[in-house]
Amino acid sequence: MHFRNLVELHHWQAERLGPRPALRYRKYGVFRDVPWDEYQQDSLACAAALIEAGIAPDDRVGLWSENRIEWLLADMGIMTAGAVNVPAHCSLPALAVARQLADAGVRWLFVSNSGYLEKIRALQSEMPELKGVVVFDRAPGSYTSSWAGFLQRGRFALPKLAAELQRREDQLGADDLATIMYTSGTTGNPKGVMLTHGNLLSNAEALLHLLPDPSEIVLLSWLPFSHIFGRLCDHYLCLRAGFLMVLANSVDTLPFDLVEVQPTHLHGVPRFFEKMLAAAQTAPTPEDAKRRLKFMFGRRIQWIMSGGAPLPPKICIAYREAGIPLLQGYGLTETAPVLTTNLPDNYRVDSAGLPIPGVELKIAPDGEILARGPNIMKGYWHQPQATSGVIRDGWFHTGDMGRIDADGFLYITGRKKELLVLSNGKKVYPTEVEGALQADPCIEQVVVFGEKKNFLSALIVPNWGMVRQLLAERGEAVNGSDELLANHPAVRKLIRERVDAALANAAHWEQVKEFVIRSQPFGVATGELTVSLKMRREVIFAKHAPELEALYNG
Fold first, then answer.
1. Average pLDDT of 505-515?
2. Which of 181, 222, 463, 533 has its CB surrounded by the most CB atoms within 10 Å?
3. What whole-number distance in Å separates Cα of residue 295 and Cα of residue 297?
4. Which of 416, 438, 462 is the last residue of a domain?
5. Does the reported pTM lie above 0.90?
6. In a shared domain, residues 361 and 440
């Protein structure tokens, strides 16, 4: 089937699947199903209400909320009105959100609750084009509408707007904007990535080959819809394939949701899979740990997929040994997002996988990964110079470095801008060194430092449970908090041994000669990780500048 836009696809699925459940979510502690026909009717009502509010085709409408059923309905409603969805990450400070919405020229905004509303009201002067706000939970005020009231107005307006809605759907083409998504900004200020209906449809279409019979699939969704990975691989893939998507209650309840829902599929990020594995490995024996991990994901699980950041091979191997295929993929917001993925029956644990159908990859002379295909973004919003800087001669320059083996598997070696050049001229890809270190069970997170220095150093977050266990086995049991242990001589000695062992086969300039032990993991709330859990190196290095410089002045 060929679809011109996501709205047409939604319409087709609603007619085809009708009363079959499309979405399932928990309300007041009880799961509720949303059938395909109801899903589309509510989206139409939302679209009609937006048109009544003065929203024209190509207008930008913001969406600032955690994952919830209303997010999905509003997203489809915005596009059904011919408008462009501009979602914001919940974890961002309100001022950053306001500036992104202002940059996009957002005219209307959906927010989750009164907390978000108060933040928007306080920054209303930052968004001169904003005309009104819809609050998913009830909130008073002339400037706002409740979601229930907004939908009701749309339902009343539907009969008179039916022809206009059909006209807008008919006029939406593959090259028309569906969304503007702001990048997480690992190496600079966020940019608005313009993704079209064709970009998103092509990526969802290309992933269909991964799926068995859609009628048998139950996908548990928890990745933020404001991030392209969750939005495409959960939301729009569900829209294209027609399977059942169950919304997790929250990130914190995800282990319980897994047991209750018993999904067949799940998408996640390396950090989540590492935590689940660590919890399973508290079992008495390795075999018990495998059985516990399998139980944690449920009896129906067929495969799970990791994206957003590199997956340590040791994690992939541990899941496969437990009977859970863990597939790693690769992509960017600018590529809508998937470029490559491993397959259940054709994979490499240390690879990002094979190009998906329709995507071409090549490696530039300097080692940068280049991509082209129907999923490549239209460009950066109001930034033609930045656009021409990354899309040249039809190829998107990813900024990632890599290689492609004889079988077509892609291997990521680092970020182009993160290449370290030591004072002796030697070049180091820090992610390769970090990957080797994170393969050690005693090391949870690591960031390598050394630009223009005469040797490499690192900030290391230990796996404190494993560190305590190994020291106890040596008869060197240590007591105290993680903060106290970060400076304990026995801990430093153990980490030194593990670092040297992990880098035993590395070149001498790739050795980590000094390190700082950090007691707490790097986090999103502290600004050290992006919302997709990538390291923000500049932020981390600035925060630890005195400690890092001291390593070179000793």
1. 90
2. 181
3. 5
4. 416
5. no
6. no
